[in-house]
Amino acid sequence: MTATAPDDATFLRMFDTMALIAATDDALRSAISAGSATLAYYSPRGQEAVAAGFAAALRPDDYLVTTYRGLHDQIAKGVPLRPLLAEMLGRAAGTGKGKGGPMHVSWPDVGLMLTTGVVGSGLPIAAGLAWAASRQVGGEGEGEAEGRVTVASFGDGATNIGAFHEAANLAAVWGLPVIFLCQNNGYGEHTAFADHLRVEHVAQRAAAYGMPGVTVDGNDPVAVYGAVAEAAARARAGEGPTLVEAVTYRLFGHVFGDRMTYVDPTELEEAWKREPVARFHRTVVERGLLSDAEAAAVEENCATIAVATLAEVLELPEPEADEVLTDVVAPAAPRETAPASKAPASKAPASKAPASKAPASKAPASEGHPELSVRSAITLALDEALSGDPRVVLLGEDISDNGVFGVTKGLAAKHGANRVRDTPISEQAIVGAAVGAALGGLRPVAEIMFMDFLGLCLDQLANHAAKLRYMSGGLTPVPMVLRTAVGGGLQVGAQHSQMLEAWLTHVPGLNVVVPSTASDARGLLASCIADEDPCVFIEQVVLLSRKGAVDDTPVPLGVADVKRPGADVTVVTYGRQVHDAIAVADALSSKGVEVEVLDLRSLVPLDEAAVLESVGRTRRAVILHEAVVTGGFGAELAAGISEALFGRLKAPVLRVGALAAPLPYARGLERLALPGPDRLLEALEWVMAYES
Amino acid sequence: MLLRLPKIGMEMTEAVLASWLAEDGAIVSKGQALYEMETDKVTNEIESPAPGRLRQIAEQGVTYQVGDPVAEIVET
Q1: Residues of B in contact with A33 (CB under 8 A)
Q2: In a domain, A342, yes or no
Q3: Residue A286: Cβ-neighbour burial (10 angstroms; 0-12, 13-18, 19+)
Q4: Residue A396 needs a FRET pair 20 to 30 A away by CA distance; which of A173, A474, B22, B48 works?
Q5: Is residue A653 a contact partner of residue A690, using CB atoms and an 8 Å limit?
Q6: Cβ B4–A33 below 8 Å, yes or no?
Q7: Half-sphere CA count of A130, side-chain side, radius 13 A
């Protein structure tokens, strides 16, 4: 059991930390007033004791996830002042090379894995980090981080957002070593505590999740230290999460320049009387640890350091222009892993589309399963990944019991319920935990049952998974996979049927993959799991039972495949529509028209070279996808083809996709809304007949 | 120390120097309100980041851009 009372050395360390936080805050506010620093600044002044107390109770290797009002947490956890301030001022020497900014500081060296600008979003990620840390116990994973805990730091306002509740519940159900540390500073943005919660204490909310909740004086670092030390001891002992509420006060309002007109002046005056740095100054003097003059000298020294570091940082250069496109995804790997037969030089991805690593090597398997369904091919890829890499874990709803489509059948029994892990129905927690697990060194494969539920977890995917590599200047990549199913064509209605790939291809940093065959499904999923960046793998349910030969040729991301060669017109497509295109092409062949069917396989990275090579040759293109035409990925393809091949085209590029309506339920209407072979045939005939 | 018009909040580009709150040549302390600036969103009092003698540069009622010189604090 960790001692819950700090010793004298810890008292002094906490005082030093608090003094440095206050001094750095003062230096920053002064620089903003003087017009030499221009940033939106969320001062933590008044909350120094929370940060000093929790950090002193942690080990250096414990993880921290914090929020945009995070300067105090970052300093207390040990982020060096120079890169910290350089990031706040957008300098190349910053923690994220100046690409993240004050709301996005990460410094894994001291366990700071995330600062998020989105209220509450750090909590599911903290749960994932804690899962990764707990899996490393006992050496099944990397084995070096025994008993590591994760602290999620957030404000009282964050406890009203879904992410808080989903993360708290998941952490409790899974018994994760995480400490939810609420810095209750009295306000959520400009709204007072009493106007946004009906409970007296945030800690009461712990009862809803079956975890202990404690409320302490957040202006007393000794009280915070005690509560966090106790929670850390529980977590390290495998007893699960704790909610610690540290009641404090935000002395300078929400953001620099906030006039705090919504605050009763008497309340603010009283809050300044409880100001924690002066109070702890008196404490260390009263305990006889320092004389008053010595304590003042500590504060003076911190002020000198903060002012000098800030002055130095203000002179540093901004990032070079070429940084704008680095760290979006991992640097392109050498192409020698691509199989020669599948990737001739002309089909190499465009230079801006990074090549992905080949799938992890695995035992040859082709002779054992020449013909598999897409479902079994996906199961095989997951099984091979779980067998071949101890970092691979699966999480999602009902996945230990086959999963809703049987894709994860048998995997929990074979690899254990800790690696193939059921979750509550909590999409945000599922994807957030996957992000955190990836930050913590695992290779998570999360499942969201239907793509229509993307809206429930899009913040985790688009604001976190996609951006964390970039915003940290490459320090925190997120190698995770999100598998999700689409039910179009099965009469399951408008909320279980949408192809929403265009939502995702619009976000830089996400790879998006749609297989059409069993062999591609296995190869692409293996490539996704091996990739260093987040990948969304889209499974069209209608395809799952489709059988096909499976071979061991790796399928790298960013390499399209000609599924049927032809000289007269190219159909650019992906997913199950590939098979419609082949059927229509076969029918047209008897009329003397040879259609080439190009299967993109991955939309991001896009094999631009293959598209332009094929259409450049046939000089006619029709784009076919299941998604609604309006704003769909086909628009991106059509624009790219037109930009590159305007003069060569014999006809306008046509798009064929779903009609612009929520997908209807009735069989006839659904068939009408989806792009069937008839509409493709019509488009191809129009393009072939076109005369300019 | 040269004081420039600060940027307050995410979208500010310019402000009117509404009024001086300390006289030209006055000895001011750190944290003392120096002037009031007004954007179409909000009025803010700007405090002195350092102690010293105030030398006013900007004029009342005039619109300035973020980064324009407003005042100087001369060490005494």
Answers
A1: 3, 6, 46-49
A2: no
A3: exposed
A4: A474
A5: no
A6: no
A7: 35
- Residue of chain A minimizing CA distance to B69: A35
- pLDDT per position as a tens digit, A292-343: 999 999 999 999 999 999 999 999 999 999 999 999 999 986 654 444 444 3
Give the N- to C-terminal CA distance of chain A in Å, as an integer: 82
Q: Which residues of A touch B43 (CB under 8 A)?
A: 259
Last residue of a domain, one of A549, A579, A594: A549
How many domains are there within chain A?
A: 3
What average pLDDT score do residues A268-291 get? 98
- Within-domain flag for A352: no
CATH number of the CATH domain containing A612: 3.40.50.920
Give the number of other Cβ atoms within 10 Å of residue A363's Cβ. Answer: 9
CATH (domain of A450): 3.40.50.970
User: Is residue A280 located within the same domain as residue A383?
Assistant: no
Report the alpha-carbon angle A104-A107-A110, nearest 5: 140
Reduce the DSSP state of residue A486 to 3 states and report it: strand
Write out chain A residues lying below 8 Å of B67, CB-based.
35, 38
Please tell me whether residues A587 and A477 are part of one structural domain: no
How distant is the Cα of B30 from the closest Cα of chain A, in angstroms?
Answer: 9
Minimal Cβ distance to A30: which of B42, B44, B49: B49
Same domain, A302 and A451: no
Tell which CATH classification among 2.40.50.100, 2.40.40.20, 3.40.640.10, 3.40.190.10 matches the domain B2-74: 2.40.50.100
CB distance from B70 to chain A under 8 Å?
Answer: yes
Residue A357: inside a domain, yes or no? no
If you count residue pairs, one on A and one on B, with CB atoms under 8 Å apart, how many are there?
Answer: 46
Q: Which residues pair with B53 in a beta bridge?
A: B27, B74
Is the minimum CB–CB distance between B7 and chain A shorter than 8 Å?
yes
Q: Is the peptide bond before A605 cis (omega within 30 degrees of 0)?
A: yes
Domain ranges of chain B: 2-74
Q: Which pTM value belongs to this model?
A: 0.93
In percent, the amount of chain A with pLDDT more than 70 equals: 93
Whether residues A388 and A244 share a domain: the answer is no
Domain hosting A191: range is: 8-34+42-314
Does the model's ipTM exceed the 0.85 cut?
Answer: yes
Q: How far is residue B55's CA from residue B71's CA, in Å, rounded to a whole number?
A: 6
The answer to whether residues A389 and A277 belong to one domain is no
With beta carbons under 8 A apart, name residues in chain B contacting A34.
1-4, 6, 49-50
Cα–Cα distance list, A334 to A330, A351, A355 (Å): 12, 12, 8
Contact between chains at A256 and B4 (C-beta distance less than 8 A)? no
**Chain A contact probe: residue of B2, B3, B8, B54 with most A CBs at under 10 A:** B8
The answer to whether residues A541 and A569 belong to one domain is no
Q: In this structure, are residues A440 and A108 in contact, taking their beta carbons and an 8 Å threshold? A: no
Three-state SS for A309? helix
Q: What is the pLDDT of residues A569-602, one digit of tens each?
A: 999 999 999 999 999 999 999 999 999 999 999 9
Domain final position from A549, A583, A598: A549
* Catalytically annotated residues of A: 427, 496
Q: How far apart are CA A388 and CA A217, in angstroms?
A: 49
Distance CA A334, CA A185 (A): 51
* Chain B residues within 8 A of A255 when measuring between CB atoms: 9
d(CA A77, CA A107): 10
**Mutation choice for B interface testing from A32, A38, A39, A314 by most B CBs within 10 A:** A38
Show the tokens assigned to A501: 């790939």
Q: What are the pLDDT digits (tens) for A407-445?
A: 999 999 999 999 999 999 999 999 999 999 999 999 999
Q: What is the pLDDT of residues A332-349, one digit of tens each?
A: 866 544 444 443 334 333
Residues A289 and A401 in one domain: no
- CB-based contact A40 B48, cutoff 8 Å: no
